[in-house]
Amino acid sequence: MPYLAAAVVLIGLLSVLNLVLTLALVRRLREQGATQPRDTGPPVALGPGSQVGEFTTTTTEGDPVSRENLIGLVGFFSAGCEPCHDLAPRFARLTTGLPRLAVVTGDDPDLVAVLSPAARVVAEEDGGTVSRAFQNTWTPALYIVDGEGRVAATGGRLEDLPIETPA
Fold first, then answer.
1. pLDDT tens across 23-54, in order?
2. Which of 30, 54, 102, 103 is most exposed, with minimal Cβ within 10 Å?
3. CA 76/CA 88 separation, integer angstroms
4. Domain boundaries in the chain?
């Protein structure tokens, strides 16, 4: 009987020690996770080097747009997206020499009005032709497209792109 009691006490002590070590490990992992940088960019399907798909559409001004005449900065914005509304004025104020195309999904005349003076604007429904060509499902999303219809850079903020941005 004394052996049985000693075994039960020993197993109990080992269980408590195991619990304390497990909790210490979880606490340390949480602390390290808080200091690790997180990827804040949008989940983009077309990364640098990818070819933009074929598309043809018209801007709000009636000008044709297709992959063949697309070059420069392409921004995707949506009506119900607060970060899109924050990014739009900065996108419009860019002083870079890159031509700009803004794709606005949903019905938002104010967003179109902010973007129109500085960029060609395409208004389309969610999952429209330009969004499908870029395989884009996230807003805001930014792409730089080269003269061959390939994505040169992507990001969710202007600071993610290799361009000079306004303050």
1. 888 888 888 776 655 555 566 778 899 999 99
2. 30
3. 10
4. 1-38, 56-160
- For residue 158, what are the CA distances in angstroms to 19, 61, 75, 128? 47, 25, 10, 23
pLDDT in tens, 84-142: 999 999 999 987 788 999 999 999 999 999 999 999 999 999 889 999 999 998 899 99
- Assess whether the previous peptide bond of 162 is cis (omega < 30° from 0): no
The Cα 8–Cα 59 span in angstroms is: 78
How many other C-beta atoms can be found within 10 angstroms of the C-beta atom of residue 158?
20
Residue found by looking up tokens 């009691």 in the block: 5
Whole-angstrom Cα distance, residue 97 to residue 156? Answer: 20
Among the CATH numbers 3.30.750.24, 4.10.910.10, 3.20.20.70, 3.40.30.10, which is that of 56-160? 3.40.30.10
Alpha carbon distance 89, 115 (integer Å): 7
Q: Which position has the token pair 């921004």?
A: 75
